[in-house]
Amino acid sequence: MAKKHGTEHGSDSLAQVVSPARRKRGTAMRKWVGLLAGVALTSFATQRSAHAQYAGQISSIVMDAKTGAVLSQTDPDLRRYPASLTKLMTLYMAFSALRAGTISLDQAVPVSIHAATMEPSKLGLVPGTHLTVEQAMLALVTKSANDAACALGEFLGGGSEPQFAAMMTQQARALGMNNTTFRNASGLPDPDQLTTARDLALLARHIVTDFPEDYHYFSVAAFRFHGRMIPNHNPMLKAYVGADGMKTGYTQEAGRNLVTSAIRNDVRLVGVVMGASSNPQRTLVMADQLDRGFDAEGVAPVARPLVLARNTVAPHHHTGGRVIMLAAASAHHGRAPLEVAEAPAPRHGHHGRATPVVGGHHVRLIGAKVRPATATTTIKHGHKAHTSRNHT
Q: Is 0.85 topped by the overall pTM?
């Protein structure tokens, strides 16, 4: 489903007429070039008097993606560390460059020494090698790879990640994200890289409304990279009915962050949760907030499954993958997870050159003979679990 960012060819005539599509593309090109050039003349003062709030105090907000109406909020304007939610702006910039025609999906992105030395989570890119723009975007959506984010940022920023970060901040201001400052493309810790839940909700809205042709990347369940299947970290794709994308984020300083977009009955909401103390808490708070948002919009409630599901992808086999179901209430109270019957791994679809899996990420729940998982239960994952040192 790769897009083609080419030019349109019209017939020769004495009075050449510029098509609306070409005019729009030319406007986007001028805007992108102006953004790239403008950072050389603009510097953003560091707001050192505004310190980020730390993990343990949750900020959240839910908006109607179409109207921008705020449906619920809790401390949405606290300055916080975005962690890997930063990558949403990196992706916004990539989508903008694709539309402007300054880059293409199959264009080679060079991997610098600087990019290769980024801390995990990462693909393990080697200096001097390349990956495509589309592979880089998919790596950000699924694995939240910091090396791919840095490489893509350098590529879009004319070879400089700091220049790209200035472009990101300038774009944030243009979108109305007045309390956001970016210092890198990945979200790795920087004391001056700050945002708010409200600003991130604005960004999520713009991603959905400004680039509907690219939003589908956020629902990709996995993609193949150099013979490996890279699965998506986002638990909401399987845990919440109607959720179809966005991003997780974590550093020790930021806590657990999450942006989710979900659609029911043609009503789309975007939600942000920042500073949760655990992944189950983050997921449950988001689900509760979205439920209340849909209720406020008059959307009939959907019975929420009592489980949070995570589908594993077998990297080299076509055998069935084990599905582990975590009871939401049990996980919230520290009880043992529950295990249910086997379910087949999703089929691997195709998505352009990177061959991501786009189907099968909705898990059919099996209500037969639920039993507690024991210490002897063997769980095979397609990727390594992240430790507290990882940044996702």
A: no
The confidence score (pLDDT) of residue 362 equals 34
Q: Which CATH class is domain 30-372?
A: alpha beta
Which parts are annotated binding residues?
247
Please tell me which residue, 189 or 391, carries the higher pLDDT value: 189
Q: Residues within the annotated binding site for substrate?
A: 247
Mean pLDDT lowest for which of 25-29, 31-35, 146-150, 341-345? 341-345
Task: State the catalytic residues.
Answer: 84, 87, 144
* pLDDT given at position 303: 83
pLDDT computed for residue 196 by the predictor:
98
| Domain residue ranges in the chain | 30-372
**Three-state SS annotation for the chain:** CCCCCCCCCCCCCCCCCCCHHHHHHHHHHHHHHHHHHHCCCCCCCCCCCCCCECCCCCEEEEEECCCCCEEEEECCCCCECCHHHHHHHHHHHHHHHHHHCCCCCCCEEECCHHHHCCCCCCCCCCCCCEEEHHHHHHHHHHCCCHHHHHHHHHHHCCCCHHHHHHHHHHHHHHCCCCCCECCCCCCCCCCCCEECHHHHHHHHHHHHHHCCCCHHHHHCCEEEECCEEEECCCCHHHHCCCEEEEEEEEECCCEEEEEEEEEECCEEEEEEEEEECCHHHHHHHHHHHHHHHHHHCCCCCCCCCCEEEEECCCCCCCCCCCEEEEEHHHHHCCCCCEECCCCCCCCCCCCHHHCEECCCCCCCCCCCCCEECCCCCCCCCCCCCCCCCCCC
